[in-house]
Amino acid sequence: MDAGLGGACTAPRKGLVLGCLCVGLFMAMLDNLVVTTALPAIGRGLNAGTAGLQWVVETYSLVYASLLLTGGTLGDRWGRRRVYLLALALFTAGSAGCALAGSLPALVAGRACQAVGAALLTPGTLSILRHVFTGERERAQAIGVWSGVSGAGLTLGPAVGGPLVDHFGWAAAFWINVPIGVGGLLFAVRVLPVLPRTPVRMDPAGQATVVMGLAALVYVLVEGPVRGWGDPLVLGATAGAVVLLTVFVVLELRVAEPMVDVRLLAGRTAGVPAFAGFAVSFGFFGLGVFLSMYLQYVLGWSPTAAGLAMLPATAFTGAAAVVAGRICGRVGSRLPLAAGLVLVAVGLAGFTRYGTGARFVEFGWLLPVIGTGLGLTFTPISVAVLGAVPAARAGMASATVNMVREVGGVAGVAVLGAVLTSRFTASVHVALPPSQAAAVSHAVTSGAALATAPGPVRAVTDRAFMTGMHAAMWTGAALLAATAALVLSTMRGGRDGAAG
Q1: 3-state helix, strand, coil in the chain (%, to 5)
Q2: N or C: which end of the chain has fewer CB atoms below 10 A?
Q3: Do 167 and 19 share a domain, yes or no?
C-alpha cells in the first residue's frame, strides 16, 4: 500500500512538486491548439485533404474528452504518482509518433496516443496538488499557479506553433514535446511523493457508458456543422449520446461508489462553477479558431504573426491566475469567477466593433482583457470544485471539471461555427448572384477559399465573414454574461464560499 507523504512535504519540496506538475500540464495544454497552425503544412506534407486534417484535431478531442473521467478514477485507484508517470510517458511517445508519421493514419494514431496520456495526466495534476497542499489558502495559491500554467499553455499554442512550422516544418510542432516530456518524466520520478491510494471499486458499466456516450457527444458537436445536423450519422450519434449518458447518470445514482458524483454537479457548490468552466471554454475556443482565421485570411497576416498576436493574452492569463489564487484564499471563489466571466464577455463583444480594415493597435487591447478574464476564471473553478469533495475523491472531481471544460470547448467551436456559417452564407447570397453565391458559400469552412477569392468576390466574402464572426462573438458573450449572473446569484460569498 502506498504511503501518504503529502502532508509531510516541506515548503521547498511542495514547490518542486508544483513545478514538476506544471511541466506536464503545460505540455498537454500547449498541444490543444499548437497543431492548428501546422494543419496547412501537414496537408501539403501528407497529401491530406480537409476531411483528413479535421481528424488530426478531432481525434485528440474525442479521445481526451472521453477518457478524462476514467483517468481520474484510475489515479484514485492505482496511485496518482504511478498514473501520472504513465500518462507523461504515453504523451511523450505519442508526440514522437506524430513527428515521425509518414502518413495521415499514423499521425491520427499518434494524436490518439497523446490524448490518452493527456486524459490520464490532467486530472492527476490537480489531484496531487489537493493532497500535497493541505491548507485552504496555500491550496488556492497553488491552484492559481497551476491555472496560470494551464491558461498560458492554451494561449501560447498558436504563438509557438506558427514560428516552429514556418522555420522547421510541421513535425517540429510535435518534436517540441519530446525533450520536455523526457525531462519532466525524470523530474517527476525524483520529486513526486507517493500518495495514498483510494480503495475505489471499479465501475465497468459506468466506464463503458460514459466513454461511449462522451465520444458520441463530441462526434456530434464536431461533425454536426460539417455534415449537417440532419445527417443520418449525426442523428444516430445524437441518439446514442442521449441514451448512453442517460444510462450513465442512472447507474451512477445507484452504485455505492460512483465514478462521478452526479449529485455534486447538480448542486450549486460545484455544479455552478463547473458550468462556468463549460461557458468560458465555449467562448474562448470559438474565439481562438475564428480570430486565427480573421487575422490570416481577412487581414492577411502570416501564421507566425497571427500566433504571436496571442502573447498579450498569455501573459495576462498567467498573472491573473496567480492573483486569483490569492484572492480565492482570502474571499472565496464567487467574486473573482464572476469578474473573469464578465471580462471574457467584454472581450468577445469588443471584437464586434472591428471589421475588414482593422489594425492591431485598434483591437489589441482586447487580448489582455480576455487573458485577464481567463486567468480569473480558471483558478476559482478548480478551487471551488476541489473544495467540495474529500481529498480521496480529488481525482474524480478534477477529471469532472476538466471533462466539462473540454466538452465546452468542442461545443463552442461547433455552435459558434454554425452561427458564423449561417450568417456568412446568408450575407453571401444577398450580395452575389445565385451562381457565384453557391460557389463561395463554403469559403468559411476553408481558409484557402477566403484567401484566394478574386478581388470583387473577396471583398464580399470578407464582409460576410465579419458579419458571421460578429454574430458568433455576440452569442459567446451572451452566454458568458448570463453565467456571470448565475454565479453571483447562486454561489455563496466569503471564505466559506471558496467552494461555492
Answers
A1: 85, 0, 15
A2: N
A3: yes
Three-state DSSP state, 126: helix
Q: Which amino acid is at 326?
A: R
Cβ-contact 26, 152 below 8 angstroms:
yes
Q: Which residue type sits at 265? A: L
The position carrying cell 476559482 is 380
Average pLDDT over all residues of the chain: 80
Q: Is residue 123 pLDDT above 50, yes or no? A: yes
Please, are residues 218 and 69 in contact by the beta-carbon 8 Å criterion?
no
Residue 334's nearest CA partner among 446, 198, 473, 489 is: 489
Tell me how far apart the alpha carbons of residues 487 and 211 are, in angstroms, rounded to a whole number: 29
Return the C-alpha cell found at 353. 466593433
pLDDT digits (tens, 9 = 90+) for 335-372: 999 999 999 999 999 999 998 888 888 999 999 999 89
If asked whether residues 127 and 241 sit together in one domain, one would say no
pLDDT of 175-227, one tens digit each? 988 998 999 899 888 888 877 666 666 677 887 888 888 888 878 877 776 67
Closest CA to 406 of 71, 52, 47, 15: 71
Q: Are both 11 and 50 inside the same structural domain?
A: yes
Q: Which of 256, 280, 300 is the last residue of a domain?
A: 256
* Total Cβ atoms within 10 A of residue 397: 29
Q: Report how far residue 261's alpha carbon sits from residue 259's, in angstroms, rounded to the nearest whole number.
A: 7
Contact 465, 294 (CB under 8 A): yes
Give the pLDDT of residue 446. 46
274 close to 265: Cβ distance less than 8 angstroms = yes
Of the three residues 256, 284, 301, the one that is the final residue of a domain is 256
Host domain of residue 417:
7-200+257-432+460-497
H or E, element range at 18: helix 11-33
CB atoms within 10 A of CB 142: 26
Smallest Cα–Cα separation from 214: which of 115, 109, 293? 115
DSSP code string of 132-168 = H--SHHHHHHHHHHHHHHHHHHHHHHHHHHHHHHHHH
Residue from 292, 95, 305 nearest 184 by CA: 95
- Distance CA(221)–CA(230), nearest Å, equals 13
- Rounded CA gap, 389 and 431, in Å? 56
CA-CA distance, 476 to 483, in Å (whole number)? 11
Nearest to 417 by CA among 123, 161, 221: 221
φ/ψ of residue 301, rounded to 5: -80, 160
Question: Do the beta carbons of residue 281 and residue 151 sit within 8 Å?
Answer: no
Joined together, the cell numbers standing for residue 374 give 481567463
**pTM beyond 0.85:** no
Distance CA 171, CA 197 (A): 38
Give me the amino acid identity at 305. Answer: A
pLDDT of amino acid 309: 81
